[in-house]
Amino acid sequence: MPKGSPELTRARREEIINACEALYQTKSFKEITLKDVASATSFTRTSIYNYFQTKEEIFLALLQREYELWIADLERIMAQYATLTKDGFADKLAHSLEQRAQLLKILSMNHYDLESSSRPERLAEFKVAYGNALKTVLRCLEQYFPEMPIAERQRFLYTFFPFLFGIYPYTFVTEKQRAAMEQAGVNYVFLSIYEITYNCARMLLGD
Q1: What number of other Cβ atoms are within 10 A of residue 37's Cβ?
Q2: Cα–Cα distance measured from residue 70 to residue 119, given in angstroms and rounded to the nearest whole number
Q3: Do 3 and 75 fall within a single domain?
Q4: What global pTM score does this model have?
Q5: 191: which DSSP letter?
Q6: 17/82 same-domain check
Q7: Is the domain of 17 the same as that of 68?
Q8: Three-class SS of residue 4?
Q9: Which of 51, 75, 90 is the last residue of a domain?
Q10: Would you tell me which of 48, 81, 90, 125 could form a disulfide with 201, CB atoms 3.0–4.6 Å apart?
Q11: Nearest to residue 133, comparing CAs of 190, 183, 67?
């Protein structure tokens, strides 16, 4: 593969993103440094700056990839099921997000800081994936509920997508958090990603 080729650039970007993803399994966003990411790749920290200038840009690229994977999941659902009831669509949508815990985990971070600490071109790349996710869910609604008014489809999108930011904190609770809630007298009820997503989608779809 020639030096500087698009293939090499893509491969190195993926290596950096993969290294960040692996670190994120055991460390928090605040704990991860560019030095950590470089140590988990085959090249130096200085070389990383040829692809990403900040840690936030790497996480934004990881989030972009997660959106793209979710889009592919939704497209498979549309290809496999020509029609679905409201219950059926809520079920499939909830299962699609059940497989995307990484997406939900990153969304639960301070999204504003990720975007503000990324260059305009990197942010634009991410927004393409985000926009495609919106369009894909809209296509699902158009396919399965052709009678749904446009205003209702918009209401679904702009309620459901902000809702995604809060799923992970409600479905992944540490023992420290559990203990604190018990001390505070909070009656915490555990819900899975599937349950909380299904309930929201079903409510938005109405009777």
Answers
A1: 22
A2: 24
A3: no
A4: 0.92
A5: -
A6: no
A7: no
A8: coil
A9: 51
A10: 90
A11: 67
Are 47 and 65 contained in the same domain? no
Q: Which domain holds residue 129?
A: 55-205
* Cβ atoms of residues 126 and 116 within 8 Å: no
CB 62 within 8 A of CB 17: yes
Q: CATH code at 26?
A: 1.10.10
Q: Residues 87-133: pLDDT tens digits? A: 999 999 999 999 999 999 999 998 888 999 999 999 999 999 999 99
If phi over 0 gives left and psi between -120 and 50 gives alpha, with beta otherwise, what is residue 64?
A: alpha
Count of domains forming the chain: 2
Compute the distance between CA of residue 82 and CA of residue 3 in angstroms, rounded to an integer.
46
Of the chain, the percentage scoring pLDDT greater than 90 comes to 81
Site of tokens 């059940």: 98
Q: What is the pLDDT of residue 188?
A: 77
Measured distance CA(205)–CA(189) in Å, rounded: 24
